[in-house]
Amino acid sequence: MTAPLLEIDTVSKRFPLKATLADKVAARLAGRRAxxxxxxxxxxxxxxxxxEVVGIxxxxxxxxxTLGRIVSGIYAPTEGTVLLDGKPIAxxxxxxxxxxxxxxxxxxxxxxASLNPRMKVGETISEGPRTHGIVSASEVTDRTRALLExxxxxxxxxxxxxxxFSGGQRQRIAIARALAMQPDLLVLDEAVASLDxxxxxxxxxxxxxxxxxxxxxxxxxxxxxxxxxxxxxxVAIMYLGRVVELASAExxxxxxxxxxxxxxxxxxxxxxxxxxxxxxxxxxxxxPIDPPPGCAFHPRCPFAGPRCRAEIPRLTEAxxxxxxACHLNDGGVGQEAAA
Length: 339
Ligand SMILES: Nc1ncnc2c1ncn2[C@@H]1O[C@H](COP(=O)(O)OP(=O)(O)OP(=O)(O)O)[C@@H](O)[C@H]1O
Description:
The protein has eleven helices and twelve strands. The chain is an alpha/beta fold. Residues 15, 38, 40, 58, 60-66, 223, 288 line the site of adenosine-5'-triphosphate (ATP). GO terms for molecular function: ATP binding.
């Protein structure tokens, strides 16, 4: 068996909060430390095989982008390690983050913000490969044209500026720029979220074609379950910084196990199930500054029992390669659990 291309091992990321003078005084009077932290990502372990596309799904603020940025070498994790092809991209030390890694390329949500408005798209696409010696000067023009054609644009668009393109075309340019670096791994962070639905479908189809032709490996971050279903082999569901369920897309969509996954599915009217009875998830997402004890989902969970309020559930096997972090799965929540 070959090792996974990407190995995320027990990664956490906390963003320290700056304490105001009033906080410091109050904390000193109370005999505790001032400040605190946003628990953006907690104890996440995940692998991605070569040629695999793994989705990261969850509501806003659950830590998806932070995880993507750690994998891209933009953030150092507070704890844990990220290995690409067995070598560290990042460890829990700021000076051990490979900020210049070219092997992971990130594609962001907003194609308007991610392209330099004053740079011709040909220069945008070829800048990275030229700087890093990935293409020679003599190859640059042909390679840039070929990349534009590969993403469904005309080669002579290389001479145009970003404002001459639509949102969907700009996202194609962003994909061409990422592919130009010949990355081992793509991190797509809400890559189609800002596009109209019909354009989303076109860009997703492009991604699927590229995946088939180039054997891409990717982390596909999205809040949109219907988008993820079309492009991912496996899907990790995140809640308040933790992975709560990880399964093949097929199994997850056929039979979601974690109460949060079930609630997430029930809240989406457009999953093609023909169901009209979609229900928003009840309650608010808790603060990542002060996560609830036990299972972070327990305040919103219809099945929560005493154990859920006290003990953090670990990800455990639930059959067929699926893992679920729920006490219902690892022995139940006790008599007191609501029916
Ligand atoms: N640089 C930062 N400094 C402080 N807090 C941050 C920082 N980046 C993210 N956070 C916080 O970390 C938590 C996770 O944010 P993150 O952007 O990773 O979530 P997300 O699931 O990608 O949400 P969204 O889909 O809204 O982007 C949030 O509470 C967010 O406010």
